[in-house]
Design brief:
By secondary structure, this protein is mostly beta strands. The chain has two domains: about 150 residues, 7 Propeller (Methylamine Dehydrogenase, Chain H); about 120 residues, Methylamine Dehydrogenase, Chain H. About 0% of the residues lie in helices and about 50% in strands. The chain has no helices and 29 strands. It is globular. One of its GO terms (cellular component) is kinetochore. Its main location: nucleus. It holds the Pfam family WD40. It is found in: Chromosome, Centromere, Kinetochore; Nucleus, Nuclear pore complex.
């Protein structure tokens, strides 16, 4: 008997608003729980969640909001800083957002009296991706519909600026070699830049448009994944600049691609909210079919838990969590 891969979320958390974006903190913050941030129409919520997969005495999910940050405008993207620490006194919460007004906001909080944010201005169109440098957290990279990738320091000064051939859709920093940056463009080209020489060192081609999302596999940095058109695509950058594997995945159009943080063969994709409700899928490279199909009427954002095979998606007034096997 074939197990039906389609299922509802394992856990949900109710929210006060439609959730546009959700991000687990990918860095170890020195606490047993997991920091998660999600963005709505005009605020960002930072919370802590623990799952029964990690602690036996928890039933399902334990969630607690730590702080709500007023944002004043719709939140489009969230990136965590590796400087975030819950085991320091006072604690440090640090993240940045991209917003509908084309600005980046850098938030710093001690979860008590100190709550500051700095505005980084320069993009002239929507910002599609942003990320902190994973080692020191002293720089932020962003890509935009304005055909640029920009590097900023925490003072808001641009330290580098790459002109792209089409809208920039995704940006990823190498986990170890922090002078290497991956930038994915809507025209199907993915380029790797050396930030020391500010030159492109390698490029990949999807041969499909529009490329909407790409992600560097942090468990194995020879692997890059993306969604373009209605397909997912995987590259092995040591072998070819063309995809090694690809498969149709979302009927209307694929939207997001994210590798699991713990398994180099596990990844998730989402499609645009369309005629079908099953626009969230988890895939394993060893399986011809998706290993999990999540039915979610409307969904935004996609993020993997740092240590579990568990995915979060934002929904209509809720966060949705799916768990899969390794």
């Amino acid at each position: 008997m074939k197990q039906d891969a389609s299922r509802n979320a394992a856990y949900t958390v109710d929210c006060e608003d439609y959730v546009h974006v959700v991000e687990f903190n990918p860095f170890d913050s020195g606490d047993s729980g997991n920091l998660i941030a999600y963005g709505g129409s005009n605020y960002v919520v930072v919370g802590m969640c623990t799952f029964q997969e990690e602690e036996a005495d928890i039933e399902g999910i334990q969630y607690k909001t730590l702080r709500t940050f007023q944002h004043g405008v719709r939140v489009d993207g969230i990136a965590w800083s590796p400087e975030t620490r819950l085991d320091s006194l006072p604690p440090v919460i640090k993240f940045c957002t991209s917003a509908a007004d084309m600005k980046i906001r850098l938030f710093t909080s001690d979860l008590q009296d100190k709550n500051e944010y700095k505005v980084l201005e320069g993009h002239s169109d929507f910002i599609n991706g942003l990320v902190f440098d994973p080692k020191e957290g002293q720089e932020i990279a962003s890509v935009s519909d304005d055909h640029t990738c920009r590097i900023w320091n925490l003072e808001g000064i641009q330290t580098a600026h790459f002109v792209l051939h089409s809208p920039g859709m995704s940006v990823c920093w190498h986990p170890e070699e922090t002078f290497k940056l991956m930038v994915a463009e809507k025209n199907g080209t993915i380029r790797f830049y050396d930030l020391l020489t500010q030159q492109a060192i390698l490029s990949l081609e999807s041969e499909q448009m529009p490329l909407m999302s790409a992600h560097w596999c942090l468990k194995n940095t020879f692997k890059v994944g993306a969604v373009a058109g209605s397909d997912w695509l995987i590259w092995d950058i040591t072998r070819s600049s063309y995809p090694q594997d690809k498969r149709p995945v979302h009927m209307d159009q694929a939207c997001l691609f994210r590798w699991s943080t713990i398994n180099e063969n596990l990844f998730a994709t989402t499609g645009y909210p369309g005629k079908i409700a099953s626009q969230f899928q988890i895939h394993h490279l060893g399986h011809p079919q998706p290993v999990l199909i999540g039915s979610v009427a409307v969904g935004s954002g996609l993020s993997w838990h740092r240590t579990l095979p568990l995915c979060a998606i934002g929904g209509d007034h809720k966060l949705l969590f799916w768990v899969t096997e390794m």
